[in-house]
């Protein structure tokens, strides 16, 4: 199998330069799915942008004989983007897997007004392999709620203990353990 194409899906307000997603872009050549508005994220706009980028990377190329292994590395609201996109796209078979890290919960009272287009949250099984990492002290989503997302999406749930929002403030740096989990999603497996 060829080297995977990793599409990085930041959450609301994007990922800063010390975030593991940004470090993976610099170190591993991952591609950020740039959204036109990080401050006022509209679910429909974000879904359309992800669809465009997936199709762009799935196109055949002279340097690639086989179909590429596309994997998604999502953080926070990016996790909900994966679920919403997969539920609406006719091209979800182009994605081999998704690493879903610290999903946000836009239905929490503090976020409901700002992220209203993200409710109701899409809670249907993903058509590809996925691993969801959750923390017990994430200020944007309880561990129990993240567990409910994992169950609905058919994701393997990994308990990250008390790791906050699993972002730059969590002190992960380049986070090689997370990247190893992502690489594992490109290995052959039984169908979902």
What does it look like?
With 192 residues, the chain is α/β, with parallel strands linked by helices. The chain has one domain (5-184): Rossmann fold (3-Layer(aba) Sandwich), CATH 3.40.50. The protein has six helices and six strands, in the order βαβαβαβαβαβα. It has a six-stranded parallel beta sheet with strand order 2-1-3-4-5-6, sandwiched between helices. α1 links the parallel β1 and β2.
Break the fold down into its secondary structure elements and pairings.
Layout: E1 5-9, H1 20-28, E2 31-32, H2 43-58, E3 70-75, H3 77-88, E4 95-101, H4 109-112, E5 129-134, H5 143-153, E6 156-159, H6 176-184
Helix pairs in contact: 2-3
Features of the shown structure:
32% helix, 192 residues, 6 strands, six-stranded parallel beta sheet, 6 helices, alpha/beta
Category from helices, strands and their pairing: alpha/beta
Secondary-structure element order, as H and E? Answer: EHEHEHEHEHEH
- The radius of gyration over CA amounts to 15 Å
Low-pLDDT runs:
none
Q: Strand order, biggest sheet?
A: 2-1-3-4-5-6
Secondary structure tally, helices: 6
Please report which band the strand proportion falls in: under 5%, 5-15%, 15-25%, 25-35%, 35-45% or over 45%.
Answer: 15-25%
Distance between the termini: 19 Å
CATH topology: Rossmann fold
CATH class: Alpha Beta
Q: Architecture, CATH level 2? A: 3-Layer(aba) Sandwich
The total tally of domains equals 1
- Nearest-integer average pLDDT: 92
Task: Tell me the major beta sheet.
Answer: 6 strands, parallel
- The shape, in one word, is globular
């Amino acid at each position: 199998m060829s080297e995977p194409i990793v599409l990085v899906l930041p959450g609301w307000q994007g990922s800063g330069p010390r975030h593991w997603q940004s470090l993976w872009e610099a170190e591993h050549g991952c591609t950020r799915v740039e959204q036109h508005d990080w401050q006022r994220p509209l679910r429909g706009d974000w879904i359309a942008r992800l669809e465009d980028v997936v199709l762009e990377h799935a196109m055949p190329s002279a340097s690639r004989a086989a179909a590429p292994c596309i994997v998604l590395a999502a953080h926070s609201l990016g996790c909900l983007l994966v679920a919403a996109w997969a539920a609406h796209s006719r091209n979800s078979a182009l994605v081999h897997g998704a690493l879903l890290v610290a999903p946000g919960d836009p239905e929490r009272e503090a976020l409901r007004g700002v992220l209203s287009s993200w409710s109701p949250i899409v809670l249907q099984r993903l058509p590809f392999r996925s691993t969801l990492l959750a923390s017990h002290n994430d200020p944007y989503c309880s561990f129990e709620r993240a567990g409910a997302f994992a169950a609905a999406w058919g994701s393997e749930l990994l308990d990250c203990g008390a790791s906050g929002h699993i972002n730059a403030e969590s002190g992960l740096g380049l986070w090689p353990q997370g990247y190893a989990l992502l690489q594992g999603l490109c290995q052959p497996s039984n169908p979902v």
